[in-house]
Amino acid sequence: MTSQILVDGSNVLFWQGGQANRTVPAHVVQALCARRFAPRAYFDNSISRHITSAELDAVAALAEVIIAPRGTPADAMLLADCADGRLQIVSNDRFRTWRGQYPDLRNSTLVTGSIGKGGRVSFSKKLRPAPI
User: Fold this and answer.
1) Distances from the Cα of 62 to the Cαs of 1, 11, 33, 39, 84, in angstroms?
2) Using only C-alpha atoms, what is the Rg of the chain?
3) How many whole angstroms separate alpha carbon 13 and alpha carbon 101?
4) pLDDT values of the chain reduced to their tens digit, one per residue, 132 residues
5) How far apart are CA 70 and CA 125, in angstroms?
6) pTM
7) Distance (Å) of CA 15 to CA 84, 116, 126
8) End-to-end Cα distance, the chain
9) Distance CA 39, CA 107 (A)
10) 87 contacts 105 by C-beta, under 8 angstroms
11) How many CA atoms lie within 13 A of 23 on its CB side?
12) What does the alpha-carbon distance between residue 56 and residue 48 come to, in Å, rounded to a whole number?
């Protein structure tokens, strides 16, 4: 059974050493797909400054890709889609500035991660299924 999970694509882009790495979003999405998740990746409108359309297409081949309209932060769309904490969010962002607006956002909703040698993706906690 496939389960939904949300990915803060603009955040995971910077998981490797704090610098933008164009291949990281695809690695994260591939790791989630391998664990039988159906990821939805959210990106800020400015993503084209960091990633080519071909690299974004590689992510879109595996996951639904949502690019926020100009002037709208992707975080707002991502958190609204979180379904009151029912869906986990893969991001190293703690969303502190959004907590007042999304009181149901819990630490258990947030899954941090990192990229190791060879593009190996590690997650901070067990990913929990939320049926599609």
Assistant:
1) 16, 18, 7, 8, 25
2) 14
3) 25
4) 578 999 999 999 999 888 899 999 999 999 999 999 999 999 999 999 999 999 999 999 999 999 999 999 999 999 999 877 789 999 999 999 998 888 878 777 899 999 988 889 999 888 876 654
5) 33
6) 0.92
7) 26, 10, 19
8) 9
9) 19
10) no
11) 7
12) 9
If you write DSSP's letter for every residue of the chain in order, what string do you get?
A: --EEEEEEHHHHTTTTTTS--TTHHHHHHHHHHHTTEEEEEEE-GGGGGTS-HHHHHHHHTTSEEEEPPTTS-HHHHHHHHTTTTTS-EE-S---GGGTTT-TT--GGGEE-EEE-GGG-EEESS-----B-
Residue type, 113: G
Residue 27's nearest CA partner among 59, 74, 70, 68 is: 59
Of the candidates 103, 74, 104, which has an alpha carbon nearest to the alpha carbon of residue 91?
74
CA–CA separation, 47 vs 53, rounded Å?
10
